[in-house]
Design goal:
The chain has about 625 residues and is an alpha+beta fold. Strand 2 and strand 3 form a beta hairpin. Helix 7 runs antiparallel to helix 13 and helix 8 runs antiparallel to helix 20. It is elongated. The termini are far apart.
């Protein structure tokens, strides 16, 4: 059985009720256990009311639970002084009444604690619930029309400068089709595959040739811009040397959307993310512990369970003037957790410090994290690991903070600091891990899991331009966040299936390219792509005003023999598509057709139809 664990609200309520007179690099991993499974909302069916009932029951039977789950180490009272001489630590909890159990002690507190407001309840916000009508609209909660307008304006400006009168203005349909192809390339695990291979008539995928020509895709990739490069130097100077000026406006508008659409649960993880990139960039980082090693580093605060990216910052390196930033880890955590209340933050030893814990407590936010051994607030007694028993734990307490030194290997200890835990609880497992270590291990992998799931179907393409790398990461995070919101709003969607995210991304990509295919005038030479375009253009489109046929263009179309009638010079009229690009549950599906090169489209031909395309 696992150790007893209490909410941040209960611990804070108990901590601030104490008036006692008794007044912080090891391995970043406190365990070899790994958290990397993709989030599945079906595994978490409990509601907030159920959680409240659980905590009430825990408060009523805290003593019995302690006997079954954890043991409290009994040690003589000792006093430790930090290496800087400013903090006094005790070997036992400073409040003698806490020995009956944290929940019971919290229940006796008289200090009022602010309840979580209605608009901060975990899960999608009211704005997301009201606007997420389908998969496409859920994605567009993040990729907003304002962001599209900026990209279109700057891309068309660059296109006119480079191509002059030959440039055909890009519109929102073109941009969405381009984004849709990027997402579909990630779905098909084609991130490292050359674009020419995706468009190949023999081995490529039908959807790419059916959407747009390869040269158009290359042109958009080459000319896609997010700012006016002729005014970039001026804006960079006005922004105090902003190294992110090339994508700053798009980034800021996108980042401000993240916390507006989803409220994290009680546990939040803060960590770094490295977006792979080896090209020229003024703030490219080298992190040897990461798989990519080189790339653009971002700070991320995400929900520990769902890995929803709640806030993000791009690290642009040292400031152009002045020395290196001091207390950077504390500044990052305080920035990324702004707006949280009653939550617990889990972070690694780069961020954790005694001062950070104090600052977060003022916001009614607790913290659990590993601590580097060179911190001046740590007592010397907890740093020593020689002659200690394997799996032993040493605790130190202040009225607001708990510190533990755990020995997972011989002569090698790991230090963790917590303002969430108030007792010297040690599990009855074979390795005798403290409750602090178990809670840290269960929540530390939020950002790492985010990296894993977006890397599985990433839309990143090979490029030498770092703004495009950031744009690809925006699409990856947006699509995953949209998936989290969609699954929580539709818990019965695809029950029991293990490939939900792949299906979500595939349907999203098809929905983005559909409008472009519907208005395409010329057909490609390949038979399958031409048949797909005809099917989409003939399909019944369900619009907000009702069922209406799409607008057709009268253009010359090359003749292609049909697979069912090789002698025919044209395809029969198509009225339905199986697994249509325009995903809608109400659309009828027919099973007649032929699958082309694994794309997943079965074109249903109307039997007995006499019209000609």
């Amino acid at each position: 059985m696992s150790a007893v664990r209490f909410t941040a609200k209960q611990v804070l309520e108990h901590i601030f009720s104490n008036d006692s007179d008794c007044d912080e690099e090891a391995d970043e991993e406190a365990s070899e256990e790994e958290d990397g499974e993709e989030y599945n909302p079906e595994d978490e069916e409990t509601t907030e009311d159920d959680d409240d009932d659980d905590y009430d029951a825990a408060a009523a039977a805290a003593a019995a639970d302690d006997e079954d789950d954890v043991q409290v180490e009994e040690v003589e009272r000792e006093t430790f002084v930090s290496r800087n001489g400013q903090i006094q630590w005790c070997s036992v909890p400073c409040d003698n009444n806490r020995g009956v159990g944290g929940a019971a002690a919290a229940a006796k507190s008289n200090r009022p604690v602010a309840e979580v407001p209605e608009d901060m309840r975990p899960g999608p916000t009211r704005q997301a619930v009201g606007q997420a009508r389908d998969i496409l609209s859920t994605f567009r909660l993040f990729f907003t029309p304002e962001i599209e307008d900026i990209i279109l304006e700057m891309t068309n400006l660059e296109g006119v400068r480079k191509c002059g009168g030959r440039w055909k203005a890009m519109d929102s349909t073109d941009l969405r089709a381009y984004v849709g192809l990027l997402i579909l390339a990630g779905v098909y695990r084609s991130r490292g595959e050359a674009a020419s291979s995706l468009w190949d008539a023999e081995s490529g995928r039908t959807i790419f040739r059916a959407t747009m020509p390869l040269k158009v895709f290359h042109a958009y990739s080459r000319l896609l811009r997010f700012d006016d490069r002729q005014t970039r130097a001026e804006r960079r100077a006005a922004g105090g040397g902003d190294k992110l000026a090339a994508v700053r406006e798009v980034w800021d508008k996108w980042v401000e959307r993240l916390p507006l659409l989803y409220n994290p649960g009680p546990d939040v993880t803060v960590d770094e993310q490295l977006v792979p990139f080896r090209g020229r960039c003024p703030f490219r980082q080298y992190i040897p512990s990461k798989p990519a090693k080189y790339g653009i580093k971002t700070w991320v605060a995400c929900d520990s369970k769902s890995s929803y990216a709640w806030k993000m910052q791009v690290y642009t390196g040292k400031a152009t003037c002045g020395g290196p930033e001091k207390n950077q880890g504390m500044r990052v955590v305080l920035d990324l957790t702004q707006g949280l209340r009653g939550h617990n933050v889990t972070c690694d030893n780069f961020f954790t410090s005694y001062e950070l814990a104090r600052q977060l407590l003022r916001r009614n936010v607790t913290v659990v994290g590993t601590v580097r051994k060179n911190k001046p607030e740590l007592p010397q007694a907890l740093l020593a690991s020689k002659d200690r028993l394997l799996f032993s734990s040493k605790f130190a307490f202040t009225p607001t903070t708990t510190l533990v030194s755990y020995l997972p290997k011989k002569n090698k200890n790991v230090l963790l600091l917590s303002t969430l835990h108030t007792e010297a609880h040690v599990s009855r497992r074979q390795d005798k891990k403290p409750a602090i270590v178990l809670d840290y291990n269960s929540n530390k992998g939020g950002v790492d899991n985010l990296d894993k799931v977006i890397g599985t179907y990433s839309c990143r393409r090979m490029t030498a331009r770092w703004p495009l790398v950031i744009f690809h990461n925006i699409l990856d995070v947006s699509s995953y966040n949209a998936f989290v919101i969609w699954r929580e709003l539709n818990p019965t969607w695809m029950p029991g299936k293990r490939n939900k995210r792949r299906v979500f991304l595939e349907q999203l990509g098809k929905a983005l390219v559909t409008p472009f295919i519907q208005r395409r005038a010329r057909l490609p030479r390949t038979e399958a792509s031409a048949a797909l375009i005809k099917a989409v253009q003939r399909a019944i489109v369900i619009s907000p005003g009702g069922i209406t046929p799409p607008q057709h263009r009268t253009t010359h179309r090359p003749k292609h023999p049909t697979p069912h009638n090789p002698g025919s010079s044209s395809l029969q009229c198509t009225s339905h598509i199986r697994d249509s690009v325009n995903t809608d549950d109400s659309r009828k599906r027919l099973s007649v057709g032929e699958e082309k090169r694994g794309v997943g489209y079965l074109i249903a031909l109307c039997a007995g139809c006499s019209c000609r395309c």
